[in-house]
Structures are given as C-alpha cells and as structure tokens.
DNA sequence: AAATCGGGCAACCGCGCGCAG
DNA sequence: CCTGCGCGCGGTTGCCCGATT
C-alpha cells in the first residue's frame, strides 16, 4: 500500500508558474513565513501542490538567491566536492551561498560533467578516462592485464587510497558534529586552496602494504564504502553545513582529517589550481598534468582505449 | 522561411527519513 | 513501539528557445 498523495492531483495546477502565482506565494511567505507547506497553497490562494510551492520558493523566490552565472571558483568548488561526496547536491549547494541544489545539479549535468569529459576526466570517478577504462578492462579481463607486481603501482595505490578515503569520509560524517566542506574565501581568489582530488592521490609513499582486492565500486565516489546508511540519514542531519567547516578544515586543511596524505603533498595539484593566470589554470589541467607524471613514472602500466572493450 | 535538433533550465516525481501523536 | 504525515533530496521529464540545416 503506497503513500497517499499529498494533494488532490486532479485539482492542482502544474507547469510553469505565473507572475501572479509568484506574487501570491511571495506575499504569503513574507508575512507568514514558511511553515507547513501543505497548507500554504490554500492559505495563499494558490491552486498548487504544497510541494510545488516549496520548490518554487526554495529554487526561485527565496531571498538572497544568486541568479548570475557560476564563477570559476564556484565551478572548482563543485568539482572538488563532487569528487569527494558525489551527487550530494544539497550539501554542495549549502556550501555555495545563494545557490540551490537544483542550480548546482543542473549546472553539473549541463556544463561541468561535459567539461570534464571533454578534458579527459571521467565525471563519475574524477579520474582520467584512460585510467577508468583500464580499471574496467581489468575487471572484465582479469588475466589479460595483470597488475604490476610493484607495490607502488599507480592503480593499486589509487584503489587503496580510494577505499581508505571513503572509509574515512564515512567516519567523518558519522563523528564530526559539524562536518565541513572545503572552504574558500570568495573575496580573494588566491586564497582558495583546493583539497586533493581523492581519487587521484599524490605519488605513493615508498612502503606499501599488500594490495587490496579491488571491485568496481571501489572506483565510485558515491557507492563504495560510503554506505547507504550513512548517505541519507547522517548526511541529511548535517545539512546546515555551510559555515561550519572551519573546525575541521582549519589549520591543516583536509589532509589532517585522519586521512591519507601528508600535509603539503598535494602541492603539485594545487600549484596550478590556485594561481593567478598560470598557464595551466584549471583543476582539470592539474589532474591531467598529474596523470602524465604518473604515466612517466610508471611506464609499465598499459594504456588501453575504447577498442579494448568491443 | 520552415523544420529539426540540442542545450538549458524549471518543475515534477518517487522515495527515504524524521518526528509527532 | 508503531504509524502516518510532512519535508527534503536526487533523478528525471518536459518545455522553451536559439542554432543549424
């Protein structure tokens, strides 16, 4: 038995909102505030579902919303957070003043994911597409492309770090009272420092333990160790994250969250991302640069292309 | 000039969670 | 403890409009 509808669907208007409806909703919310959305349509004199009213208000009518284009800083912020927590749009939006989850989601779907793809970065895993394809190829042909025996293999390290990262992120979400997000000062572009992309760790330390068995989900930001139990309830509890990240990120930055990397080890990544007018000025470029470095460092890694899969 | 295509965005839908009774 | 309701989230749909053929 399903849940009953929140309103009489036969008698509610759907589709685009008119200026008159906007005015009524705005007039109501400005005098009464927002409370029980189910009752808002009736009280405001609207033939709309309460849900529709809430959506219209939060995405369009709410005060202090920004309607201008996303800035490069905001772009980087979204990409960085998406790499870390996946499509938790509300969390990402909460860290961008004046932006809604719908804004961020739409912007990602229409612009950023394409931009990343065109730059050779897989928008799901945030790793170079060639690397992702190699991982897929290994899964489907476990014998054909053996993992290099060296414990410092790029992919092995990546899988290990990724798993560790998601475990740590999960713990952080569970234990931190005010989970943080990367914080940047919009008043000064040069003060914005980007966390290390979690799926592209810096060169590995010399000593490394036994390689982990890897599965496809280990390469997903969203799926893996994050866990469904954490994903919804715990994260939702912390939706008021916007301005509360200092305690976690201050001082040592992201890298001091009991995590993976030594402080400052990401400097190769960040050097081009935070500069002013450097030649390679984007996050994506930084990732690609790093991938090239990895390729030169580990020439034994085979490169595969799409023809390997067909 | 008309038809088609594709991108962008607003809005809808279904589901899970939290909370109050 | 159980149940029902409201809220919020992420995924998806559909419309609008500009570009292209």
How are the secondary structure elements laid out?
Layout: H1 19-32, H2 40-44, H3 50-61, H4 72-85, H5 89-94, H6 101-118, H7 129-140, H8 154-175, H9 228-237, H10 246-249, H11 267-273, H12 283-297
Helix pairs in contact: 11-12
The structure holds a DNA duplex (21 and 21 nucleotides).
Domain HTH myb-type: 9-61, 62-116
Domain Myb-like: 9-61, 62-112
GO molecular function: transcription cis-regulatory region binding
Describe the structure using short key phrases:
disordered C terminus, Arc Repressor Mutant, subunit A, 310 residues, DNA-binding, elongated, 12 helices, mainly alpha
Summarize the structure in words.
The chain is an all-alpha fold. It has two domains: 13-61, Orthogonal Bundle (Arc Repressor Mutant, subunit A); 72-304, no CATH class. It contains twelve helices and no strands. The chain has helices at residues 19-32, 40-44, 50-61, 72-85, 89-94, 101-118, 129-140, 154-175, 228-237, 246-249, 267-273, 283-297. The longest helix has 22 residues, at 154-175. It is elongated. The structure holds a DNA duplex (21 and 21 nucleotides). GO terms for molecular function: transcription cis-regulatory region binding. Keywords: DNA-binding, Nucleus, Repeat, Transcription, Transcription regulation. It is found in: Nucleus.
């Amino acid at each position: 038995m399903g849940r009953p509808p929140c309103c009489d669907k036969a008698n509610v208007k759907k589709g685009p909102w008119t200026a008159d409806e906007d005015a009524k909703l705005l007039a109501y919310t400005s005098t009464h505030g927002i409370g029980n959305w189910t009752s808002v349509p009736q009280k405001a004199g609207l033939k709309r579902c309460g849900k529709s009213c809430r959506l219209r208000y939060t995405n369009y009518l709410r005060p202090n919303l920004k309607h201008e284009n996303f800035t490069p800083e905001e772009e980087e912020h979204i990409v960085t957070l998406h790499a870390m927590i996946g499509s938790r749009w509300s969390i990402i939006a909460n860290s961008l003043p004046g932006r809604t989850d719908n804004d961020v989601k739409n912007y990602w779907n229409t612009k950023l994911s394409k931009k990343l793809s065109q730059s050779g970065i897989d928008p799901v895993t945030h790793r170079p597409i060639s690397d992702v394809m190699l991982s897929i190829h290994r899964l489907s042909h476990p014998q054909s492309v053996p993992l290099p025996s060296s414990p410092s293999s790029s992919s092995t390290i990546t899988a290990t770090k990724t798993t560790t990262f998601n475990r740590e992120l999960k713990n952080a979400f569970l234990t931190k009272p005010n989970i943080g997000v990367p914080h940047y000062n919009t008043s000064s572009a040069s003060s914005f420092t980007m966390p290390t992309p979690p799926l592209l760790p810096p060169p590995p330390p010399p000593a490394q333990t036994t390689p982990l068995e890897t599965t496809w989900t280990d390469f997903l930001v969203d799926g893996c160790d994050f866990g469904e139990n954490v994903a919804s309830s715990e994260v939702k509890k912390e939706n008021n994250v916007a301005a509360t990240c200092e305690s976690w990120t201050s001082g040592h930055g992201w890298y001091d969250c009991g995590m993976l990397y030594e402080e400052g080890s990401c400097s190769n990544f960040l050097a081009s991302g935070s500069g002013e007018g450097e030649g390679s000025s984007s996050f994506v470029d930084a990732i690609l640069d790093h991938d090239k470095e990895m390729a030169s460092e580990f020439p034994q890694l085979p490169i595969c292309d799409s023809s390997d899969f067909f």
